[in-house]
């Protein structure tokens, strides 16, 4: 599949089959994430792979009970937690490159997982301190996001997207071609 087809295929999934993810597919997605670009090539991201029920439960408990992501973390056979080492990035002119770099790595992982026939769902609504404690993440490292990873148990339809004319300007803000 080409990149446009890949981008059109990716969905946020919240239900997963009780089916293990092949080691090769997991490693492929992590390798794609490892190759993401970063500010000054500092590569601040780190991934924690959780593949046991107790570990997934401890991470799920970092979310509010009514958060649909909580159930997704328990259903998927794997949860990947994205962390970023603060000193391995910089804030420049008020722009936090650490968050951008970590996000690029996670997007690489999510798209690579989609290419491998796996489902994901970017999770950001969690208590960072609870995750930090559960996973022994040091204080100088941020817990940025997480995603369940597994085979989809649901078919998700495409969500509406803005038109190109609403998002792309020619030469200056608001100028439409």
UniProtKB/TrEMBL annotation:
InterPro entries: Nitroreductase, Nitroreductase-like. It comes from the Bacteria. This is Nitroreductase family protein. Belongs to the nitroreductase family. It comes from Desulfosporosinus nitroreducens. PANTHER family: NAD(P)H NITROREDUCTASE YDGI-RELATED (PTHR43673), NADH DEHYDROGENASE_NAD(P)H NITROREDUCTASE XCC3605-RELATED (PTHR43673:SF10). Gene3D superfamilies: NADH Oxidase (3.40.109.10). Pfam families: Nitroreductase (PF00881). Residues 8-68, 74-151 form the Nitroreductase domain. Keywords: Oxidoreductase. The keyword 4Fe-4S does not apply.
